[in-house]
Specification:
mainly beta; five-stranded antiparallel β-sheet; two-stranded antiparallel ribbon; globular
Length: 75
């Protein structure tokens, strides 16, 4: 069995928060520290600057376009 995820460990992502009108607000930058695979989707454990670990579904996160996935850091 092969498992694939949209984001990798250590990758920097944005949490996509929606306001009352449904507009997406880029809330904060988070680091992926864990990946959970389920029958109906993938969730990610992420940690922000505050040090708290939170869990979000893949649809709630967006990759940071400035983060280079190949090198694992910013250019």
């Amino acid at each position: 069995m092969k498992f694939e995820s949209k984001f990798g460990l250590g990758e920097i992502v944005n949490y996509l928060r929606r306001d009352y009108n449904g507009t997406i607000i880029h809330d904060e930058l988070l680091e992926v520290v864990g990946i959970n695979f389920f029958k109906d989707g993938t969730s990610y454990m992420v940690r922000g600057h505050h040090g708290v670990t939170l869990t979000f579904m893949e649809s709630e996160l967006e990759g940071d376009e400035n983060f280079n996935k190949e090198t694992g850091c910013y250019d």
